[in-house]
Specification:
By secondary structure, the chain is of the alpha/beta class. The chain is built from 6 helices and 11 strands. Bound molecules: cytidine-5'-triphosphate and magnesium ion.
Length: about 220
């Protein structure tokens, strides 16, 4: 029987947020942003341990009370230069079995729900490859030219926006990231092995908090969930 683990890269600075405090620690509905996703992952009965990958010099994480997560939460101070580097370092440090499932989730997606986690695990637990939460693209897509004028309209049929969690076997993911570390998500590295991860339909509430205006929306969602 393979086990389920979560790995949360949280070693970024949040440059696009433009705040001195790294964005994963900005206050959101009365808690640091990272508190929400970690609490949701720790509360899931199938997930054994939630590894959180922090920057080596992180002085913020240890200041908060994590007692509600019990012994499930395991901080690792081994973040890398890039998100992919942080995930690869975290995977090495947590020493999982090759067949264990690992759900990689951004600290900056605080609105993940138990319902989405349940759906993802149910759809993928017997899958040979694994997969990701994603949403079919809803808006019409425009290709820009160098003058920021519309060069043409791109067909959106069959296009999905990738989210996290991204769920793969630990052995496959470690191999994929070792071969290809310039990716912006785990699925891209797994695709480069010639595999086809499954798209599990999610919804737009699981968005990534990236810009200052995203904070208000995330707070509204978190206080209404
Ligand atoms: N991340 C990480 N290590 C890095 C860069 C990013 O662990 N070297 C993490 C972030 O902390 C975040 C997740 O990866 O939880 C998604 O990245 P993103 O939203 O891009 O966060 P930042 O890289 O911090 O933001 P920005 O790109 O605006 O600087
Ligand atoms: Mg980034």
């Amino acid at each position: 029987m393979s086990e389920f683990y979560a790995l949360v890269p949280a070693a970024g600075f949040g440059a696009r947020m433009g705040n001195e405090l790294p964005k994963q620690y900005l206050e959101l509905a009365g808690k640091p942003m990272i508190w929400h996703a970690l609490s949701t992952l720790c509360a899931h009965p199938d997930i054994g341990t939630v590894f959180v990958v922090l920057a080596p010099g992180d002085e913020h994480f240890a200041r908060y009370d994590w007692s509600h997560c019990g012994s499930k939460l395991a901080p690792l101070y081994c973040g890398g230069e890039t998100r992919a580097g942080s995930v690869a370092n975290g995977l090495l440090a947590c020493e999982l079995e090759p067949d264990d499932w690992v759900l990689v989730h951004d600290a900056a997606r605080p609105c993940l729900t138990q319902a989405l986690l349940d759906k993802m695990i149910a759809e993928l637990r017997d899958d040979p490859v694994g997969g990701i939460l994603a949403v079919p693209v809803a808006d019409t897509l425009k290709r820009a030219d160098a003058q920021q004028r519309i060069a043409h309209t791109e067909p959106r049929e069959g296009l999905w926006q990738a989210q996290t969690p991204q769920m793969f076997r630990a052995g496959v993911l470690a191999e994929a990231l070792a071969r290809c570390n310039s990716v912006t998500d785990e699925a891209s590295a797994v695709e480069a092995l010639g595999l086809q991860p499954k798209l599990v339909a999610s919804d737009s509430s699981n968005f990534k908090v990236t810009y200052p205006q995203d904070i208000v929306l995330a707070e509204l969602l978190l206080t209404s969930l």
